[in-house]
Design a protein that fits this description.
alpha/beta, seven-stranded mixed sheet, five-stranded mixed sheet, 37% helix, binds pyridoxal-5'-phosphate
């Protein structure tokens, strides 16, 4: 028990963070009232409160590649371990470079704290395992990223039942709710189904029933939406994608809104962390499953994420514009169909416009008619890479049915919006004209 009580120093960090968050909310309010204008997105990335003064005046956090952090006396290390003094002990538990990354993402998402993970999959898994135990049930979308679907099936071996629903909305959720339901999980924009969740409606419906909403906001990014402001309780990202932006580090992150009231009768594991108040979820995560599974982020990758994320705003602006240009140019073409949230043909156009302030994100899908035509189209493209990633600077394409969804049944693929003729396009920052012409040429060659 004494050992488990260690490593609570992050609590001090969070206390500071709390002030940060409150001041952001205050400036947000001032903005609404037309008084002092708060920072806009790209400015916050460079000058936000989470951007600290690093040693020697460095503008970026130093890469702290040290496993251990030493102290002058046993008494000092003891204090660090017992959360009576701030400091780092061991990089699996906390690290200054990783901490710099966590603070910046937390500020962007308006949370009370964030925990970085070795990958997006690690973040999704740990965000749920932190509150689940054998016998529990989860309700999840079926139009999810293939890795998320595989993971949810993996949970079944540990006694956790997952109910899949075609879209994460109140009507679909309701029939599966019972006393064993412990979480609802979905993607804000499904990858690659491009179904858009109404976060506010879903969250308020669940809160009335004492259930938290966990969202994977990888494809939306904080540039499109800050899910916590719409009521999401826990936000996860594969920061390998748009947040990193350059396709050079695998990582994930979990952000806590701090707003969900964890009922200890419903979540018995939370009992020991009740004394942390609104930090209970984070305290349990950091001192429990996250730390003990060892899913920590490497300091080098945290550094690459910090440098990468500083351009998230300008990249997303360009990526969203390129995606819309491409979707509009292709949607009238013969022999193919295009899916993009902002197109009139998308059932999610209205909610995308409203929730994302007229931005549609960086993914679109094309259906070419047959698998052969899809391959022919892909192979005819000049400025794209055929690769399994999203959120890179380069435009990437993939045929999901034969790759990411290799382990999924026909039924599961259809539910995820993945057909034999589907091509997923992760739009990059190339010049729009070149990209549009490249795709038009490829479609015409069919
Ligand atoms: C890529 C992705 C993940 C998994 O992230 P990794 O960093 O590859 O582990 C999870 N969710 C979504 C929506 C993704 O696109």
């Amino acid at each position: 028990m004494i050992k488990r009580k260690g490593h609570f120093w992050f609590f001090f960090v969070l206390k500071e963070e709390e002030n940060d968050v409150e001041s952001v909310i205050k400036t947000e309010r001032n903005k609404e009232m037309g008084r002092k204008k708060s920072m806009n997105f790209q400015t916050m990335l460079l000058h936000g409160k989470a951007v600290r003064k690093y040693s020697d005046g460095a503008t970026l956090p130093p890469i702290s590649q040290s496993n251990a952090f030493s102290y002058d006396s046993s008494e000092e290390l003891e204090k660090v371990f017992q959360n009576r003094a701030p400091g780092y002990a061991y990089s699996r538990i906390s690290n200054p470079t990783v901490d710099a990354f966590e603070r910046r993402i937390n500020e962007l998402e308006n949370g009370i704290g964030a925990v970085a993970c070795s990958s997006g999959m690690s973040a999704v898994a740990l965000s749920m395992l932190n509150i689940l135990q054998a016998g529990d049930e989860v309700i999840a979308g079926s139009a999810l990223f293939g890795g998320n679907l595989d993971l949810l099936h993996d949970l079944e071996a540990f006694g956790i039942t997952v109910h899949f629903i075609p879209t994460v909305d109140t009507q679909e959720i309701e029939p599966f709710l019972n006393t064993k339901t412990k979480a609802v999980f979905g993607e804000v924009i499904g990858n690659p189904g491009l179904n858009v969740m109404d976060i506010q409606e879903t969250a308020s419906f669940l809160h009335e029933r004492g259930i938290p909403l966990i969202v994977d906001s990888t494809t939306a990014t904080p540039y499109l939406v800050r899910p916590i402001e719409f009521g999401a309780d826990i936000v996860v990202h594969s920061s390998s994608k748009y947040i990193n932006g350059g396709g050079n580090a695998i990582s994930g992150i979990i952000i806590d809104s701090g707003k969900f009231a964890w009922d200890v009768n419903r979540y018995p594991g939370m009992r020991a962390y009740q004394r942390y108040g609104k930090y209970a979820y984070l305290a349990k995560l950091r001192n429990g499953i996250w730390r003990n599974m060892g899913g920590c982020l490497a300091p080098m990758n945290a550094y690459l994420n910090v440098t990468g994320m500083e351009t998230l705003g300008i990249r997303m602006e360009r990526i969203c514009q390129n995606s819309l240009d491409l979707a509009e140019a292709l949607c009238g073409m013969e022999g193919i169909s295009v899916n993009y949230p902002l197109l009139k043909s998308s059932p999610y156009q209205k909610i995308a416009e409203r929730q994302f302030h007229n931005k549609g994100g960086g993914i679109l899908t094309i259906r070419a008619g047959t698998k052969e035509r899809a391959y022919k189209l892909i192979n005819a493209l000049q400025y794209v890479k055929i690769a399994t990633n999203i959120g890179d600077l380069r435009t990437l394409v993939i045929h999901p049915a034969s790759t990411i969804y290799l382990h999924s049944s026909e039924e599961a693929k259809a539910a995820a919006g993945v057909y034999d003729d589907t091509i997923r396009v992760s739009v990059g920052i190339e010049d729009s004209e070149d990209l549009v012409n490249d795709f038009i040429r490829a479609v015409e060659s069919l």
